[in-house]
From TrEMBL:
GO terms for biological process: lipid metabolic process. Residues 34-321 form the GP-PDE domain. This is Glycerophosphodiester phosphodiesterase. PANTHER family: GLYCEROPHOSPHORYL DIESTER PHOSPHODIESTERASE, GP-PDE DOMAIN-CONTAINING PROTEIN. It comes from the Bacteria. GO terms for molecular function: phosphoric diester hydrolase activity. InterPro entries: GP_PDE_dom, PLC-like_Pdiesterase_TIM-brl.
Length: 336
């Protein structure tokens, strides 16, 4: 009986220590507003039912709420003006040594072109209409056709137009050589500017970028998985694994609540490790690209949440954020 009592007391003490080490009740983190990552700038929404890697999302566009086209300078200007803190953009190498900012691997869906984006020069891509393929009625009308000619920017143009802004650069391939090309490009950028960038995408190109430029934040599915698993095993102690340091993490909102110290102790730890956090929409299997696009999901954020969120529907989410409570309710602490 004495032995059992001793074991019980030890377990209680251990549980209390873990709770104290992870409860946000003891965090001094001030209340704030979410840091907003606008995925593809101010973009058109589309029906996500039955999506596959081959789906042409321009053909599944929902009824337009605005006339902005993703990954264009104009949409980026509008996104920053609306309240975005960070923008995500997609890049492809071109035959003339540039990087084109465009979502799709091929030109057939959105633009009036054909074939792989990477098989064209930037000069050729500039001649295309990036609004050509958008339709919300099964091809009866194309509301942006003719309005996107010349609007596909190069990465040079984007960084020159927004020299002090934060960007997530999405490498749209699994080609390590593409990562090497991007690393060579980024190596010519001054470190303070590079510190505002995150490179994410395929495991191989992201690893190549990180190897060439250890100071830049990177993220791939491999590094995210390793970080989450290692933190799940060791985070109760306050330890932040190496895979979780000096990086950017995109975490589904329905996974975040299970992380040790969520929300404030977790955010404090990641801040201390030089890591940025952005919440995505609920994980339901498959990829991790869908953002917090439903305004109702914003109501599920902890009061005073000052980490990041990623959204494809900036125009819907910003007004909802403006109506969130400004103070924290520590009784809602969810230390795992």
């Amino acid at each position: 009986m004495k032995k059992r009592t001793t074991i019980l007391l030890v377990l209680i003490a251990a549980g209390a220590a873990i709770y104290i080490n992870n409860t946000s009740l003891l965090s001094s983190r001030p209340a704030g507003e979410p840091v907003i990552l606008a995925h593809r700038g101010l973009a058109q929404s589309y029906d996500r039912t039955g999506l596959t890697g081959e789906t042409c999302t321009a053909e599944k566009m929902l009824r337009p709420r605005h006339d902005y086209l993703e990954n264009t300078i104009r949409s980026m200007e509008a996104a920053f003006a609306l309240g975005a803190d960070v923008l995500e953009l997609d890049v492809h190498p071109t035959t003339d040594g540039k990087f084109a900012v465009f979502h799709d691997w091929t030109l057939d869906c959105r633009a009036d072109g054909a074939g792989r984006t990477r098989d064209r020069s930037m000069a050729e891509l500039k001649k295309l209409d990036v609004g050509y393929g958008y339709t919300a009625d099964g091809g009866k009308t194309f509301p942006f056709r003719g309005q996107g000619v010349g609007l596909m920017p190069s990465l040079d143009e984007v960084l020159a137009r927004f020299p002090d802004r934060r960007f997530h650069i999405n490498v749209k391939s699994s080609d390590a050589a593409e990562g090497e090309k991007l690393a060579a490009y980024l190596a010519d950028i001054q470190p303070p500017r590079r510190a505002l960038l995150t490179v994410y995408g395929g495991n191989e190109p992201v690893a190549a970028v990180k190897q060439a430029l250890p100071d830049i934040r990177t993220l791939s599915r491999r590094t995210l998985t390793r970080c989450i698993l290692q933190y799940a095993a060791l985070g109760w102690s306050g330890y932040v694994p190496e895979q979780c340091r000096d990086t950017t993490l995109l975490i589904p909102i329905n996974v975040a609540g299970w992380l040790w110290g969520w929300p404030d102790r977790f955010l404090d730890r990641m801040d201390g490790a030089g890591t940025q956090i952005f919440l995505l929409g609920p994980y339901a299997g498959g990829g991790f690209s869908e953002g917090l696009d439903d305004p109702e999901l914003i109501k599920n954020l902890p009061a005073g949440y000052s980490g990041g969120i990623s959204t494809d529907a900036l125009d819907l989410i910003v007004p909802e954020i403006a109506h969130r409570p400004a103070s924290k309710d520590r009784s809602d602490d969810a230390a795992s």
